[in-house]
Amino acid sequence: MPNRLADATSPYLLQHAENPVDWWPWGPEAFEEAERRGVPVLLSVGYAACHWCHVMAHESFEDAGTAGYLNERFVAVKVDREERPDVDAVYMEAVQAATGQGGWPMTVFLTPDKEPFYFGTYFPPQPRHGMPSFRQVLEGVDAAWRDRRQEVGEVAGRIRADLAERAAVYSAGAHHPPGDADLHQALVALSREFDQTRGGFGGAPKFPPAMVIEFLLRHHARTGSEAALEMAVRTGEAMARGGIHDQLGGGFARYAVDADWVVPHFEKMLYDNALLLRVYLHLWRATGSELARRVALSTADFLLRELRTPEGAFASALDADSLDEETGASAEGAYYVWEPGQLVDLLGPADAATAARLFTVTADGTFEHGTSVLQLLDEPQDFAEYEEIRRRMFEARASRPAPARDDKVVAAWNGLAIAALAETGALLDRPDLVEAAERAADLLLAVHLTPDGRLLRTSRDGRPGTNAGVLEDYADTAEGFLALYAVTGETEWLQLAGGLLDTVLKHFTDEASGAFYDTADDAEELIRRPQDPTDNATPSGWTAAAGALLGYAAYTGSDRHRTAAERALGIVGALAGRAPRFIGWGLAVAEALQDGPREIAVVGPADDPATAALRRAALLGTAPGAVLAVGAPGEAAAEVPLLADRPLVGGAPAAYVCRHFACEAPTTDPAVLGARLGVVLE
Question: What is the pTM of this model?
Fold first, then answer.
């Protein structure tokens, strides 16, 4: 019989709707029930594409005996971390503070007052590898709750006090943005952690460092640092050639379990692919790399082919697991891996040998049971042959049972996709990508934006969810709208971005310090108001907001928005040298601030080829965080101050470049404009 999750819109919660566990969704009713019964709360947090979440569900939550014990002695609450990042953030911080590590599934025991007192992640059904079984954990927590209630309360109080102390550190951060010395210090710190052999930073597991690469590219563009460019290029190439990159269908997996980028954790997330699409586009723009261009286009095609929803937005993720045709069981990576015999059956002996060499498919394998994850360690000598083999393998793979898709639409991640697709479409002459970005933006306006200008975080099947947008939703959606304005010239996108950023300033800002909170001042009250300037899998909402505010200020001349961006970047200076891997987007925004950012106005008739040539030169520029406005003389000056008082020059379209309150002489020559903006490509 379905439990209370049967009415949820979250695919993750719906996966648990038939569990014998008497799950409650997060809400006051669950905690009122715990208070009424005098029992603790089990909070279980995960997401639809999480492999170990599925494992724990099959082992424990689908077990009638475990469920019976759990239902009798606890109130069980299930949360989709992607729907409620605020709940996830607060309790994950507590888990990490108490245990030194974290991850999903996250398992936390709470008092009826929402205070955490015992923590963990995955627990097996029987004790193993030094871990207690889930049943042992339940029994131990139950005994502590019944027999040592005072001790439980003291633990919960200490944890709450620790979280409050951590929050105070952020609010007391420096109020001045990082300068050139801070950004250089970040580069030096990154170089110490750079893997000279394999690319990337640190050891296994290795996550794609999209925000750090963006900082490195911007730092190179501003300073000419070859060390920054080398780290960006080598990491980008290593990921592109490794197993973390889907060599047949495009797109990237969540992370590599090894230091060589060979074996991925196979789930494919919208946010990773949106961020990496933009990174590879910018790598191509900075270097002219054909590999980077190819990866950017194949990643964009993956987004449109496999994550676009019928309503035109983008779904959250593809599962790591899929059905193994031989065993009939669900297995991680089954959709993606190959054996030599499969290549022979599909391609014949000669082409199979070529495919095995191209994609590193071996008899021993690089994954489980003698299977291999595809890699492309070297450029093909015969590109036409490679493309034909790749096409045939891709079509054959499409007949396999596909991974499930989490088709919930998250505003923030769609904002990232909108920005990436709009830029890629404009730079690589793919108008269909710009159209896809516009359609996704239209869905956010129609479904996620409320009449009072507030954002909802999620939707599904064109129906809005009930969860309020968090800071990253406003910041990343504004970033997407600003990118759409730069590409299309439609002033509506600039105005909509401004409205979202005004909400950020009104509802998410600590006026005293200039810091940002992750939730609005009128959001549900948790044990603390979440706040974190460091990046996770996506840019921190804090620094993403700073970036969007800085861009909007450059378009409009708004001192209010620029000052807010500068104040918010104060924390970046404090973390630049100590933890640059975890403040990458903040460093990238700081590079834009150091450079100006450049304010580019291209004035000319929309249908004039000379206007188009200047516009393209501006888009190809590598100047960090540069903003671009294009319009006919006097046409949009009232709506876009950057275009005000910009006449044609000698009757011809012209480009104006300003920064730091000073402007260069206008030019009608795309080559001159390109030289000013660091254009690499001709």
Answer: 0.94
Q: At 185, which amino acid appears?
A: Q
pLDDT exceeds 90 at position 131: no
Q: How far apart are CA 446 and CA 215, in angstroms?
A: 34
> How is 37-67 classified by DSSP, letter by letter?
HT--EEEEEE-TT-HHHHHHIIIIIT-HHHH
Whole-angstrom distance, CA of residue 194 vs CA of residue 235: 9
Which pLDDT does position 84 carry in this prediction? 94
Phi then psi for residue 17, to 5 deg, are -70, -20
Using the CB atoms, write b or e for 16-31: b if 16+ within 10 Å: beebbbbbbbbeeebb
List beta partners, residue 118.
Answer: 109
Give the DSSP H/E element, type plus range, for residue 118. strand 116-120
What does the alpha-carbon distance between residue 203 and residue 195 come to, in Å, rounded to a whole number?
8
How far apart are alpha carbons 121 and 591 in whole angstroms? 37
Task: Give the residue among 159, 223, 35, 178 at the shortest CA–CA distance from 546.
Answer: 178
Residues making up the chain, counted from first to last: 682
Cα distances from 250 to residues 245, 390, 406, in angstroms, run 7, 11, 18
Which pair of tokens denotes residue 292? 């980077």
CA distances from 565 to 535, 558, 593 (A): 17, 11, 9
Neighbours of 142 (CB within 10 A): 18
pLDDT of 435 > 90? The answer is yes
Tokens in use for 316?
């959250």
* Sheet containing strand 662-663, strands side by side: 627-631, 599-603, 654-659, 662-663
Mean pLDDT of 166-191: 82
Q: How far apart are CA 82 and CA 315, in angstroms?
A: 12
Q: Hunting for tokens 């690319």 — which residue is that?
A: 199
Pair of tokens at residue 334: 């089954």
Q: Which of 53, 55, 59, 63 is nearest to 330 (CA)?
A: 55
Tokens in use for 41?
A: 């709360």
Look-up: residue for tokens 């006919």?
A: 632
Q: Distance from first CA to last CA of the chain, Å, rounded?
A: 65
- Cβ neighbors of 356 (< 8 A, separation 6 or more) are 340, 343, 362
Angle (CA) 1-402-359 rounded to 5° is 150
Specify the DSSP class assigned to residue 490. Answer: -
Amino acid at position 365, single letter: G
| 308 SS3 class | strand
Percentage of the chain beyond pLDDT 90 is 82
Do residues 5 and 25 make contact, with C-beta atoms less than 8 angstroms apart? yes
d(CA 441, CA 495): 13
- Cβ atoms of 411 and 318 within 8 Å: the answer is no
Q: What is the pLDDT of residues 264-322, one digit of tens each?
A: 999 999 999 999 999 999 999 999 999 999 999 999 999 999 999 999 999 999 999 88
CA distance 317 to 337: 19
Cα–Cα distance for residue pair 579/176, rounded to 1 Å: 18
